[in-house]
Amino acid sequence: MMKTKGISTLAARLLAGACLAAAAHAPAWADTYPARGLSLVVPQAAGGSTDAISRLWAQYAAKKLGQPVVVENRPGAGGIIAVQYALRQPADGYTVLSAGISQMVLNKFTYKPLAYDPDKDLKGVGLLTTNPFLLVASKESGIRNLDDLIRLAKADPRALNFATAGLGNSTHVVVEMLQQQLGIEMTNVPFGGEAAGLTALLGGQVQVMAPVLSTGVPAALAGKVVPLLVLGDNRYAELPDVPSAADRGLTGFGGVGWLGLAVRSGTPPDVVTRLHAVTEEFLKDPDTVSRLKAMQVELMPGPADALDRKIAADTLQWSAVLKDINLSSK
After folding, report:
1. Which of 6, 74, 235, 245 could form a disulfide with 253 if both were Cys (CB 3.0 to 4.6 A apart)?
2. What is the pTM of this model?
3. Residue 110, pLDDT above cutoff 90
4. Rounded distance between C-alpha atoms, residue 309 and residue 298, angstroms
């Protein structure tokens, strides 16, 4: 009995020692993260809706994490420049990407071969918002409603120019979808971001654009642009006379544009969990809710894998929708 007890005691001591050694060598991410400032990489130029929402998150996250969160705008090439920059940084959670549908889904259909693999190279932190679009025309174009646009576009195909935030960007895809359903053709003029495209529209360099509601509505209410169509299933309360896509029998525009957050694959799971928790708190904060609602976006709280599941579902959806649209040649 004494011998058995001695063996049991020795085994218990060895097991305890092994556990202590393992704990000593395990990464203490949860205890130490973040030990320094973070970088939030935004694939759009300053001034657009993606930038505005990203900056709200950065400000909130800085307070919650106790470290500064610096916004880095790296526009161009449909967000590829921003994504590649983020992927060159260590997988430690100190570089976060503002990841929209363009970077995570649509680029798969626009840039072949794509310089990164959204499914393998990036890990979702969470979804932020979904953003309906507003089709608008310049005041100089003479277009006052959707029927005017259809008439002019059919009379002279590709003569009308429409601004986008980049080739294959969601602001591009929604207009391509619209053209497909209306049987019209216009010419895409890609810019380095939504704000630049709107500036060109205001200046009369292009005739049409489909910015997100948070960008298009203020310009419409100020009389700077002519609102033609809400590219979504419902009308917008502040523009009650502007029809929705559903009003005109157009389909597939609900939930097209969205924004989330991602980090490089291989980032420690507890760091992803920490960033997701901050994001969920952000989306439930009363001040955040008020400010985002004023931007005409819908909040999308949910589990940490919501972005990954959204990417998978949208890839299937858009592979069917875009099969007849050659985005790379527009």
Report:
1. 245
2. 0.78
3. no
4. 18
